[in-house]
Amino acid sequence: MNELMDYRLNHSLITDKKESVHSVLSHVIGIQAQYPNYAKINIINRLHENAYSHFHHSLDHPETVMAWGQRRTVHYYSKEDWLCLAVFFEREVKWPDKHLHNMGYSIDDEIKRMESLFSNRNPVEKKDLQEYYQEEWKDLFHWSALFLKASSEGNLYFKLKENKKYYYWNHFDEIQVDRKELELKMLRQYFSAYGPATKADAAHFFGVRQSFFTIPFEEYFNVYQIEGINYYYSDLQCSNQNPEVILLGKFDPLLLAYKDKRWIVSKDEEPQIWRKAAQVEAVVIINNKFAGTWRYKVRGGRVVFNVFLSKPVNKYLKGKIKEALQPFAFALNKEFHAVEFL
Predict the structure, then answer these.
(1) Measured between alpha carbons, how far is 290 from 107 in angstroms, rounded to an integer?
(2) The Cα angle at residue 315 between residues 312 and 317, in degrees rounded to 5
(3) Alpha carbon distances (Å) from 77 to 12, 55, 261, 306
(4) CB burial string 178-211: b at 16+ within 10 A, e below
(5) Are strands 335-341 and 302-309 parallel, antiparallel or unpaired?
């Protein structure tokens, strides 16, 4: 399965960097962001160094949004992709409807009620939403139910400014597009960013059953066979030589894009990355092999990185790990202080 690594690292922009935040988000179909700081790390990890100076400003660009999308989780998106996903997943986001119905609420009435709040002010801070809903907040926003519903319909997104959430209402006129054309567009993006990958992998990434897809994959995508299984792709590109050390942040898209994890770890190693409570650890790759995990701690204006290696490495490679961690401190807007190997 390791033969897939070179292609996937390249196609997902880890070894083929982009020049802007928008181009990164558009290519990988968003960056999961329930941990916003790791999302920032996973974005800057795909940028050329000459794009760093615009990084923080670009996150506040009007076409960069934070919204609920695939797998019903918060992502940084290009606004265009978020709205396409809203149509793509039409009728798929059912949990909020059931939850609110069971609590005695009408989903249509609650969407209209939320929209009325934004008619006089846009954006709205989270504290203002809590004040508006008062005692009903706990029921309506349990597991982000009403947020998820409004966002999945292309109406609600938010931005982070100075660690505060500001919610925006988007008056969305549904994109008029043929369902087959939209499915093909989203799958082309997926296989361009994550191919070669299987149909099961694509379903895993989008958070749907394989039966959700209606197009015949063999007619639209190139096929790469491994162990008799079809892997689909748009194009095959890889770096002539990968860096000796590659780091991925928690919930990196590459760690969420595949049902089959054997391309990066053995079955026995999987629990080191995919942990209980749906946690996905940050990863260290050395010479194209899984070598451990890493985390960070902020201490005032400084950041300390903790690296948990699964096997001993020499001083030279530890230096390469330190070097690879430097941009992440910039993404966090903190001073790089130290790396502790534990």
Answers:
(1) 46
(2) 75
(3) 15, 15, 25, 29
(4) eeeebbeebbebbbbbbbbbbbebbbbbbbbeee
(5) parallel
Residue at token pair 């706990």: 138
Q: Is the dihedral of CA 74, 77, 79, 80 positive or negative?
A: negative
Closest CA relative to residue 204, chosen from 91, 280, 142, 272: 280
Rounded to a whole number of angstroms, the CA Rg of the chain reads 21
DSSP state of 47: B
Residues in the chain: 342
- How many angstroms separate the CA atoms of 109 and 103, rounded? 13
The pTM (predicted TM-score) of the whole model is 0.95
Render each residue's pLDDT in the chain as its tens digit; 342 residues.
667 999 999 999 999 999 999 999 999 999 999 999 999 999 999 999 999 999 999 999 999 999 999 999 999 999 999 999 999 998 787 889 999 999 999 999 999 999 999 988 899 999 999 999 999 999 999 999 999 999 999 999 999 998 899 999 998 876 677 889 999 999 999 999 999 999 999 999 999 999 999 999 999 999 999 999 999 999 998 887 899 999 999 999 999 999 999 999 999 999 999 999 899 999 999 999 999 999 999 999 999 999 999 999 999 999 999 999 999 999 999 999 999 999
What does the domain layout of the chain look like in residue ranges? 19-169, 245-341
